[in-house]
Write a structure and sequence with these properties.
Helix 13 runs antiparallel to helix 14. The protein has 25 helices and no strands. The protein has helices at residues 9-18, 30-33, 43-61, 67-83, 86-102, 108-120, 124-137, 141-155, 158-167, 174-186, 190-207, 210-226, 230-243, 248-261, 265-278, 283-295, 298-314, 322-330, 336-349, 353-365, 369-379, 387-399, 406-414, 417-420, 422-429. Helix content is 74%, strand content 0%. The longest helix is centred in the first third of the chain and has 19 residues, at 43-61. The chain has 431 residues and is mainly alpha-helical.
Amino acid sequence: MKTLKIIPLLVFTILSLFSCEKKPSQITNISDYNKYLNVKGNKSLTFANNEIDFWQKKFDAAPNQISYLSMIASNYATLFEYTGDIKNLYKTEELLTKSNEAYDYSRVSTIRSLARNYIAQHRFKEALVLANKAFSIGEGLKETQKLLFDVQMELGNFPEAVKNLNAMRDMKDYDYLIRLAKWNDHKGDLKTAITFMEKARDIAEKEDNKVLKIWSYSNLGDFYGHAGRIQESYDSYLKTLAIDPNYSYALKGIAWIVFSHERNTVEAKRIVEAIEVTHNTPDFYLLKSQIAQFEGNKKEEISNRNAYFSMLQKNNYGAMYNKYNALIYADDKQTASKALEIAKIEIDHRPTPDSYDLLAWSYLNLGENKKALEIAKKHVVGQSFEPKVQYHLAMIYKSNKQIEKVQPIKEELLSSVYELGPNLEKKVNQL
């Protein structure tokens, strides 16, 4: 840890008096999370690799034992979760497809596993076909309804999603509560969403279920952050890491606090670069690009963005990064037409308010203000409460001279600055 340079008291006082920005409160402490930045080994990965070897040998010796394929597949899914290596996700798909074909798509649990794999790949329509197939078989309906809710939410079929949510209603069921939380978050009722997520966490703690505790703490970390409860967000991420020191998602959450709340770009970069060693995915380059942009380092900003696109070219991520790509392209007038193409593909994949926001935003950046407004009014207003979507909406109103609609959104956005990040804060202030 670097020692701070001592500033003479008088200079410090003058700086304080003339600084118009209030210094953000210090939430994080390097000693809390430093031990998680260079963890030697990963028990979950070692276990998954050993399991793959074990079940693969058993399957090679008895190829008629199809159930072994699902065992191997679930461990490749674990490899993907911890490494971010897309090849592991595709290997999972390959094994589950083989297994489903052998069972002639009659085994509900295997069908659902493949559907979940498709969701991870952003192949939502194919996931829905499988979910409906599992539902028509009729076995284990409650589990299938959970899957159907998840898929319908991704596709923007909200009435259908609610129908499945209501069908599995059980206030003592962890899986129901986390979906109820998701539904309330979608509706823009974050306070209620947090309440249900906390109830789910209580169940996880009562059952002392490691997997459910990790999921609850990390998601509460996100929710608390969105609500501006940064200290609780940080504490939740630390609780996640205490159970699983290799859980990079929680470290990324801490990196965001360090960057967005504390504005400590050097430390945020250090955390991100430590995560990348074991969990290398394209989005980390985008985060580093954002950090460089805030620092005013144009060269680093472009270099990281190029590294992001380079990684996409080297690996086939399918539609998984379409949203990121559309937002990057839309921000530059020269590439806004590319953003429009992607937005149209996204609407075909998942016609959600967020996808229509990409379309409206692309049209706005192509100078088609009225078209952008028309799409936003029909498909976005009152249907998505994501801060970034709201910012786009304010810009669309502004460009259409509907200034009276901008101010209320601006006020709302100023309370979501943490979630939006430092770069967008400047733009919100200019609304």
